[in-house]
Every structure is written in structure tokens, then in C-alpha cells.
Design a protein that fits this description.
Main location: membrane
Subcellular location: Cell membrane
Number of strands: 13
Pfam families: Glyco_tran_28_C, Glyco_transf_28
Pathway: Cell wall biogenesis; peptidoglycan biosynthesis
Number of domains: 2
CATH superfamily of the largest domain: Glycogen Phosphorylase B
CATH topology of the largest domain: Rossmann fold
Number of helices: 14
Keywords: Cell cycle, Cell division, Cell membrane, Cell shape, Cell wall biogenesis/degradation, Glycosyltransferase, Membrane, Peptidoglycan synthesis, Transferase
């Protein structure tokens, strides 16, 4: 029986593609282990699937000054030692990495033991963790054709992102009951990423009275970002994070407002949900979400409202325009040639296994 180690963490975007692969890997008879951080979001998500989980030390590698820059390199070194020990113990045939800084020790440890590694890069340009890992990888998967110019030619393959198949079978009636909504008013779903977005949350809550005149609102606002004063507002349902009912909520949503993390927007487009993307500002990031969003806008899948342009007026106008033109966006997404990402990546995994 073949054994695969999956790794990736820090945010849900570094975990959900791995989760999407797990059922198919199990069908093919793989033994699956997961290596993540001791306390990252990936730990609970993977343990809930009853997959053996191993935590290692992890540190963030920053491009900006932070006092932790002095301690985190030592945590990374400790993580590499722990990962090497796990690689010797687990002895997998292949490693699949979805990125995030916890993946760096795992990939480097696998390379040291000559275990083949496949990396997946979701964004238009590789993040720092994957840049460190690419030399150790046998294959680098990516979402966007534009990304190929930033990757080693012989390693790079456009695969798209694995999408959780359960998202495709949501139940609108179940979602109506879950949220306490009526069936005679359209629904806006707001997603700020697994950690939530203060900017998006504040913007939505700032226009909520006006928004609720025409829409009902599902708000996934992130851990510790609920507003108790809005708990009893009719037509508004807020949640920190949703797992089990997410497919139902997507099925109910007429339009979606989201950050522009690559995995999130790939899921949204696969579900053909008209969407308004509010990418993380270049002032607070390396600008990858802006590139992702503009690519989807160019293809006709999305509207984009950058943070610098975000006002109550621009937000309300964009939501109304999105809803009015929703059929145009739906048609563009339905006419796109979605890659069968799961099958493609499974083939690469099988090709890459250590013989």
C-alpha cells in the first residue's frame, strides 16, 4: 500500500485543497498522514477527518521587521529536525505540499531523504514559503497559466485547485432553516477568509441597514470577530467559521463578497456564484490577491473593489450592480474550461511516487 504525507497550513486556503484530495486518495488505497503545526487551523480540520496528524514547530519567515524574526528561524530549524524524524518514521512514497510556512520543514526533510515532493502554488506568483521549497520539488502545480513564467519550466504544470466535491451538493432549504431566512429575498454571502477580515467585516456592518432593505446577509466573519449586538437582526446571520453547512450556504447565496485568496475564488467560480472580490491591500501583503482578482475580472468571473476604493457608497453600488448583472457572470463561469484538478493531481502523484 502506498503512503503519502500531506502538508500545509496557517490558513484554510493551505488546507482545503488537501482535504479535497483525501477522499480520492483513500479510494486509490493510499495510507495518508498529515504534518502541520501544533496549533494551526489545519489540526482540527484534519483530525475531524480521522487522518493521523503530526504537529511540528513552525515559524513565519517575514519580509518586514518583527521581534519574532529573531526567534522564528530557530523554530523553523527545530521543525526541520522534527520533520526529518517523522520522515524516517513514516517513510512515505511521496509528499504533497499545499504551502504555508509549516510546509517548509516538511519539504526540506523529504528532500534530504530523497522522497519525491509535489508542491501546489495557488496564487499568481509564488509565496515566500513555496519559493524556498521549489528547488526541492519534483513537480510544481499551479492555478494560472501566467504563473508558469515564475516557475522552473521542467517542473511546472497548470492543474487548477482541487475543489471539495461536497460543496457541489448544497441544500437551499436546509440553509434557509439554518439561517432563519425567508425564501422571498435574495442572499448575499460574505467571506473574509478563514481568519476573517476586519476591513471587510467593518465595511459590511457599516452598510448593513441599507443592505438589508434588499438582501439577506450571511456573514462568515472569522474567529473572535462576531458582533453580539447584531445577533438578533432580522435577515442577518453571522458565523465565525462554517464547515458542515458550508455547501448549503453556498447553494443559498445569490451573490458572494469575498477576499481574493486563490483557493476561495476557485471554489466560488466552480460553483458559478457571481462575486465581488475585495483583495487584501498591497500595503498589507505582497499583492497576490490583487493579481488573482484582476485575472478573474479579466475572464469575466468577478467584479473587483480594491480596499483603497472601498466606501459605503462604492460597496452598495457594486453589490447592486453585481446582482443586477448576475446572469452575465454565471454564464462566463459556466462557459469556462474548468480543469479536472483532482484527477490531474492524482496522476502526478502516482507518476512521482518513489519506486
Amino acid at each position: 500500500m502506498k503512503h503519502i504525507v500531506l502538508t500545509g497550513g496557517g490558513t484554510a486556503g493551505h488546507v482545503t485543497p488537501n482535504i479535497a484530495l483525501i477522499p480520492s486518495l483513500q479510494e486509490l488505497g493510499y495510507t495518508i498522514s498529515y504534518i502541520g503545526s501544533h496549533d494551526g487551523i489545519e489540526k482540527k480540520l484534519i483530525e475531524d477527518m480521522h487522518i493521523p496528524y503530526y504537529g511540528i514547530s513552525s515559524g513565519k519567515l517575514r519580509r518586514y521587521f518583527n521581534p519574532k524574526n529573531f526567534s522564528d528561524p530557530f523554530r523553523v530549524l527545530k521543525g526541520i529536525g522534527e520533520a526529518k524524524k517523522l520522515m524516517k518514521e513514516l517513510n512515505p512514497d511521496v509528499v504533497f505540499s499545499k504551502g504555508g510556512f509549516v510546509s517548509v520543514p516538511v519539504v526540506l526533510a523529504a528532500k534530504s531523504r530523497k522522497i519525491p515532493v509535489i508542491i501546489h502554488e495557488s496564487d499568481m506568483s509564488p509565496g515566500l514559503a513555496n519559493k524556498i521549497c521549489i528547488p526541492a520539488a519534483s513537480i510544481v502545480c499551479c492555478n494560472f497559466p501566467e504563473t508558469l513564467t515564475n516557475l522552473p519550466q521542467k517542473k511546472a504544470v497548470v492543474t487548477g485547485t482541487p475543489i471539495r466535491q461536497e460543496l457541489m451538493s448544497g441544500n437551499k432549504l436546509a440553509a434557509l432553516k439554518f439561517c432563519g431566512f425567508t425564501a422571498n429575498k435574495p442572499v448575499v454571502m460574505v467571506i473574509g477568509g478563514s481568519l476573517g477580515s476586519v476591513v471587510v467585516n467593518d465595511a459590511i456592518r457599516g452598510v448593513l441597514p441599507e443592505l438589508l432593505k434588499a438582501f439577506q446577509v450571511i456573514h462568515l466573519c472569522g474567529k473572535d470577530k462576531l458582533d453580539p449586538s447584531l445577533d438578533r437582526v432580522e435577515g442577518y446571520a453571522q458565523f465565525e467559521y462554517i464547515k458542515k453547512e458550508l455547501a448549503d450556504l453556498f447553494a443559498l447565496a445569490d451573490v458572494v463578497i469575498s477576499r481574493a485568496g486563490a483557493n476561495a475564488i476557485c471554489e466560488i467560480s466552480s460553483l458559478a456564484k457571481p462575486n465581488l472580490l475585495i483583495p487584501l491591500s498591497a500595503k498589507a501583503s505582497r499583492g497576490d490577491q490583487i493579481l488573482n482578482a484582476r485575472s478573474f475580472e479579466k475572464q469575466g468571473y468577478s467584479m473587483v473593489l480594491e480596499e483603497e476604493e472601498l466606501t459605503p457608497e462604492s460597496l452598495l453600488q457594486s453589490v447592486r450592480q453585481l446582482y443586477e448583472n448576475r446572469e452575465t457572470f454565471i454564464a462566463a463561469m459556466n462557459n469556462s474550461s474548468h480543469t479536472d484538478s483532482i484527477s490531474r493531481i492524482l496522476s502526478l502523484i502516482q507518476e512521482c511516487e518513489r519506486q
